[in-house]
Amino acid sequence: PDFPSVEDEMRKLEVAVAAGADAVMDLSTGGDLDETRRRIRAACPVAMGTVPIYQVIAALGDEGDVGDVQSDDIIGIVERHAADGIDFLTLHCGVTRHTVAALDGAPRLCGIVSRGGSMLASWMHIRGEENPLYERFDDVLEICRRHSTAISLGDGLRPGATADATDAAQVAETEVLGQLVLRARRAGVQVFVEGPGHVPLNQIEANVVLQKRLCHDAPFYVLGPL
């Protein structure tokens, strides 16, 4: 699952920029994540994003337990990435106890396919607590405002199978993300929204309209459709 080669990551950056990429993301989950992120940032001439929750979980190692992670650990990693000059952070703020309950009430063929979403859902299940990225969203906003970092609101409950598209969990999460869009704008933090996941051709238009309506015309960072 891990391929911790910084030199290979730097080569990928060169290829992406040469091909005309407007933005890149470091999605590394192994090795020295601080070194990897900082070296890419130093050499990257375009916008760069990361997913802080990956580092939170990676720091546990093979023997760690996700239940050992503290709320402060998650917020602290967000701060570290922002302080390193990352332009946008993917934060799965919409994976809440309420939205995961919607998934429990209407089971999917494919469950949770987002890596960050599954990590946070597992953490909430083990600890019986709310997602810190949602519960402490004001802290997240203060960090991002201070470092001029944009938030990419991750679609942690996006469908991974077309059979699960536009279900209760996906819509419930999108509603929460729409609320967070308004809070981010009031705080002076730029924000965009990920979605919709893998949906059938005949649901693409409806999903775009739904996202634009619920998320107040926030830019849509499209993952899928398959």
Description:
- The protein is of the alpha/beta class and 226 residues long.
- The protein has a 6-stranded parallel sheet, with helices on one face.
- The model has no long low-confidence stretch (mean pLDDT 95).
- The radius of gyration is 17 Å and the shape is globular.
- α3 packs across α4.
- The chain contains 10 helices and 6 strands; from the N terminus they run αβαβααβααααβαβαβ.
- β5, α10 and β6 form a beta-alpha-beta unit.
How is the topology of this model organized?
Layout: H1 6-18, E1 23-26, H2 33-43, E2 47-50, H3 52-58, H4 71-83, E3 88-91, H5 97-105, H6 115-127, H7 132-135, H8 137-147, E4 150-153, H9 168-186, E5 191-196, H10 204-214, E6 220-223
Parallel strand pairs: 1-2, 2-3, 3-4, 4-5, 5-6
Helix pairs in contact: 1-2, 3-4, 4-8, 5-9
Q: State the end-to-end distance.
A: 23 Å
Annotation, overall tally of beta strands: 6
Q: Report the mean per-residue pLDDT as an integer.
A: 95
User: Could you spell the SSE succession in H and E letters?
Assistant: HEHEHHEHHHHEHEHE
What would you call the structural class? alpha/beta
| Poorly predicted regions | none
Write out key terms for the chains shown.
about 230 residues, alpha/beta, 6-stranded parallel beta sheet, 10 helices, 6 strands, globular
Compact summary:
By secondary structure, the chain is of the alpha/beta class. Helix content is 49%, strand content 12%.
